[in-house]
Every structure is written in structure tokens, then in C-alpha cells.
Fold this protein.
Amino acid sequence: MLNVVKWLPNLLLLLFFGNVNACVKEIRLASIDYPPYYGKSLKNYGPIIELITQAYKNTGYNVKIIFLPWARAISWSKSGEVDGIVGVWYSTQRATYLHHSMPIYPNTVVFYKRKNTDISYKNFSDLKRQGYTLGSVRGYVHPVGLEESGIKILYVNDDYQSFKLLSKGRVSLIVADKDYAHYMLAQPALREYAQNIQWMAPVLEMRHQHLGISKVTNNAQKKLTDFNRGLQMLKQNGEFAVILKKHKLAPSTHQ
């Protein structure tokens, strides 16, 4: 009897913490490297993933990030091998297999071209008529009307390849977010190519980054609702702005 009394407090603690851990849900999300927004080499995996992690923490989830190539991240999200994918743009095609969260942070989408190359156009169809070629990563979404124009597109596996092709003149244009391109072109692997590349006005569009939740994952709608609720809490308590500032991202006027 004395031994039971002696160990009773420890047993109660084990039961308590066991119940707490059982209440914490895990969500598995696919991501690519997309600095300065998210990436495995960034602090806390970057501002977007930190926002997602903290939003889900507010509603009782642990987040596990799995870094994958973009095409595989999309494939795993379609199949439900992961619960969702970080930082997707909305498209009607993606909406067939993903629920899109409320907007997290926007991308400023522009064309990049070779320096000293004069490219002018009135619309995307002009680019096709003039014989230009677009470089793009497989699975990326483009500004509305660009693919529909019929412009020739050369697809590659990642953005490093896109920038290299542009620098070497194998493609005429690529579409990229300005902050992402600025970060990429400052990296050692692309520095020799960066001197040949510049962005061109005007801004094509502002595209919001969302958390995409797979429609075939268990409790998909609840996972979406819980994330949106947690993200709203971050905005209301000021932590959203603190995280952006910590990662040197400007507050957005397009939230």
C-alpha cells in the first residue's frame, strides 16, 4: 500500500501529460525552397512557414514540414500523402484538389529578361507573335492569359535552371516574384548569371500565397478552418506583424 501511495503522484503526472499529448494533432505539409518566404536553410524555415506553424499552434496542432521538389509536392497533396502544401497561388485547376486558406502574403509577379534586350508588347499575344519563348518550372501557375496566348514555353525542374536559361539566351522571359528573384540571383550558384538579368515593368499581378489543404486528407475542412482561425488570431494579437518584421518582410497592403 505504501508503494502505491509513493508512486501515485508520478502515475497521475504520466496520465496527465499522456492526455495532453494525445490532444495535440499533427499536420504534415509539403514545401519547396522559396526564399525569402520559406526554405529549409531559413530561420524557422522562413516567415510563411513560421506563420503557418504559429497559426496551427494556436489551434492545437504540431506542424511537420517535408521539403520536396515542386512537382512531387503537388502530387503528394493531390494523393493525400501530405495534408497540404505551403504557399500556393489559387487557380481553378488547383481548386479541384486543394482547399485554399485565407491569404497569407502576396507575391509581386513580374517578367525577367536579359539586360540590353528590348522587349515591348501590348498583350501576351504580342509576345507569341514576336516569337518569344518563356521559361517556366513544371507545375507553376502563370498570370491569366499568358499560357492561353500560345507562347512557346520551355519547362524545367527548378528556378535555378530557369534563370540560367534566361542568362544564356535560351529563353526570352521568365515569370518570377521580385523578392524571390532578388534572393536567388544573389546566391553564389547564380551570381555569374545575375549580371545579365533584370526585371521589366510593369508588375504583371499581385498573387496571394495560401496554405493549400488536400481535399482527400482526413478532416480537410476542419484543418482549413482551424488554420484560418489561428492565422486570424496572429493578426489580432500583433504576432503576425512581429514575424514579418523579424524576417525583414514589409507589411502588405494587399492582405
User: Anything to note?
Assistant: The beta strands are 25-31, 61-67, 84-88, 98-100, 105-114, 133-137, 152-156, 173-177, 197-214. The CA atoms of residues 234 and 242 lie 9 Å apart. Residues 2-23 form the longest helix (22 residues). The chain has two domains: 20-106+208-246, 107-207.
